[in-house]
Structures are given as C-alpha cells and as structure tokens.
Amino acid sequence: MLSIVSVQTTAFAGSAVGASKVAPQMQFGGKKAAVAKAPASPFDVGGAAYGLPGNFNAVGGTELNWDPAGFMDGKSELEINRYRECELTHGRVGMLASLGFIVQEKFHPLFSADGGPAIDQIPGLPVWLWGVMGVGITAAESYRISVAFRELDGEKLKAETALRPGYQPGNLGFDPLNLLPEDPAEIRLMQEKELAHARLGMIAAAGFLAQEAVTKATWGTAYGLPDF
C-alpha cells in the first residue's frame, strides 16, 4: 500500500487561526466598512478542502468541488483531515476487498473450499486463519493510531482533536518499495490516482456484496463464468 503524502496549503493555518475580522470604520455617508466573514466552506480557502487533493474531475479533466450535502461547511482543517483519513482508510480496504472478490472465488490456496460466492466462503475459513487475521488487523490499526491520532487526556479520557496537528492524511511512513516520488507535482498526481481508485474500490466492493447477497452466485455467473 502506497504511503501517500498530502500537500497542504499555506493559505490556511488550521483551526488555531481565528476568523479574520475588519474593524468597522466610519466613512463618508455614515456607512460602516463591511466585516469580513469566515468562509462557509473549505472550498473557499486554498482550493479543495484546504488544499487536499481529490477534486480532480476524471471526466472533464477540470477541478470539481463537489459537496452537495455540505459535509465540509464550517469544518476546521483538522476535521477535514480526519474526514480524508477515514476516506483513505476505507478506500484502501475497498480496493483490497474488490480485488479479493475477483481473485479468491477462483484462487484460494490458503484454505480448501467448494467454490461459490466469496460471501459464503468467508464464514467457512478455519479458526486459526481468523486468529491470524485478527492479530494482523490489530497490529496495523495500532500502528496507524500511534502515528495519526493524538493521545487521550488522562483526566478527561478524550483528545483535544482526533488527528495530530501536522499529520498528513494517509501518510503512515509505509513505503517499502520506495514508490513515492520526490517531485511534489508527481506526488500530487499519485494522490489523485489513489483517491480515484479508492472511491471506485468502495463502490465496487459494495456492488459485489449486494450482487452476491441477492443472486447467491459468483460475480462471473452473469457472464457465463460461474467459477469466478
């Protein structure tokens, strides 16, 4: 899994910076100068979501700031980074899950199975494999929490903010194949690609689950390939 570094904007310093206000002054005609308001949406500051990637329109090739439900309205930079961390985490799992549906219904060397839909194979896994997966998931999540999230206050039993200030969403320092480029422009392009594939992976995994739950058959059955 790629270690992705989010390029942050310098136009907004985060939640520590308050809204800029202009002191009212008397002008000719008895009118007061307008008071500057805090932006209603992060799209108004530093581009998309405080400078984070992910607003590239793959269809038209232009910028697309799409947030019809207004989830980001009034949110601080740290909160938007938390949203992006969640999106990347679920997107990476979605990519692996969708690939698993395509591969494991035909190829599953770690355990014996009679074939059929993946959702029926998973409950049939041996107990020891569930234990291995549980340990692996726990270790991975513990490392992610230690890198990305703030420590709890011992008295309040809660953190001031979820993510550590300065943490770049998705950048866990894990890049064993050294795939991350050094050029910021290339990093930005890789981030856009990962987000595009992550979003598609989440939709694809949900589609596989829904289709197999309804049809009780593998995804390949509809194409005349019941072994897949």
Provide a descriptive summary of the structure in words.
- The protein is mostly helical.
- It has one domain: Chlorophyll a/b binding protein domain (Chlorophyll a-b binding protein).
- 38% of the residues lie in helices and 0% in strands.
- It contains 4 helices and no strands.
- The protein has helices at 77-104, 118-121, 127-148, 184-215.
- Residues 1-40 and 43-47 have low confidence and may be disordered.
Provide a short characterization of the protein structure.
By secondary structure, the protein is mostly helical. Helices cover 38% and strands 0% of the residues.
How many DSSP H or I helices? 4
CATH class: Mainly Alpha
CATH superfamily caption: Chlorophyll a/b binding protein domain
Amino-to-carboxy terminus distance: 25 Å
Estimate the global geometry from the Cα principal axes: globular
The helix/strand order is: HHHH
Number of domains: 1
Q: What keywords describe this structure?
A:
globular; Chlorophyll a-b binding protein; mainly alpha; 228 residues
What are the SSEs and their pairings?
Blueprint: H1 77-104, H2 118-121, H3 127-148, H4 184-215
